[in-house]
Amino acid sequence: MSEKDVLDVLDVLNEMRAFARERKIPVILDDTRAFLENICARIKPLNILEIGMAIGYSGAVMLLSSPTDCTITELEASTPNIALARENYKRLGLLDRVNIIEGDCLDTLDSLKGQKFDLIFLDGPKGKYIEILEKLLPLLHERGMLIADNIGFRGMVEGKNEITEPRFSFTVCVLREFLDITKNDMRLNSKVYFEIGDGLVIVQWRKNNQNK
Ligand SMILES: C[S@@+](CC[C@H](N)C(=O)[O-])C[C@H]1O[C@@H](n2cnc3c(N)ncnc32)[C@H](O)[C@@H]1O
């Protein structure tokens, strides 16, 4: 990619971020973006799975930091978001590396049975993270990495901030249980980064685990 191409790509990414903010579409925060760029540059995934694509911002960030033959499978329920993401991926020249599957991820995940992904980014419905995890683990390559976003839920999961609305109580319970499950499952290694973005957890299979 020439220097001009790199600058054009950065402009499009910045426009996408501004658009999402203006429309109040939640997308990854800047330090989460830097973290994902770093991870992709290090692990060089060839196939990525993302749950919750929105307008394609985090997906584009990951693809642009991965090898040029890396592809991404996107699970997304919102038809308007899919149209926006398609347009954005097209502008970035990435559309041929993207497989978008529309629908509730709890249904569409079943269609991926038998596939393995090097990197999974979970950024879909927070209240369903535990059910989604059960379906995601069989899809995680033995040396793959699963990253779940919003695990801190604005400081409420750690108890640093009060639960501001009654409807958040359920989500906070689910996220705390998600962290317990990933920490206590003897097949898994997990590491929590509450300080990055809205909180991230990385989950990987332990070496020599027989159950994966
Ligand atoms: C936080 S946004 C994703 C942001 C995106 N990862 C980014 O940072 O650019 C969550 C997305 O998950 C989608 N979503 C919510 N529930 C879903 C479900 N059950 N199945 C699939 N997608 C879902 C929403 O439509 C929304 O686009």
Q: Care to describe what's here?
A:
The chain is of the alpha/beta class. The chain has seven helices and seven strands, in the order ααβαβαβαβαβαββ. The chain is globular, with a radius of gyration of 17 Å. The protein has a seven-stranded mixed β-sheet with strand order 3-2-1-4-5-7-6, sandwiched between helices. It has one domain (3-205): Rossmann fold (3-Layer(aba) Sandwich). The model has no long low-confidence stretch (mean pLDDT 95). It has helices at 3-23, 30-43, 57-64, 79-91, 105-108, 129-136, 168-184; strands at 47-51, 71-76, 98-102, 117-122, 140-149, 188-193, 200-205. Helix 2 (30-43) runs parallel beside helix 3. The structure holds S-adenosylmethionine (SAM). S-adenosylmethionine (SAM) binds at residues 26-28, 52-54, 57-58, 75-78, 81, 104-105, 123-125.
Features:
globular; alpha/beta; seven-stranded mixed sheet; binds S-adenosylmethionine; 40% helix; 212 residues
Shape: globular
Structural class estimated from helices and strands = alpha/beta
Bound molecules: S-adenosylmethionine
Radius of gyration: 17 Å
Q: Helical segment tally?
A: 7
The overall number of domains is 1
SSE ordering: HHEHEHEHEHEHEE
CATH architecture: 3-Layer(aba) Sandwich
CATH class: Alpha Beta
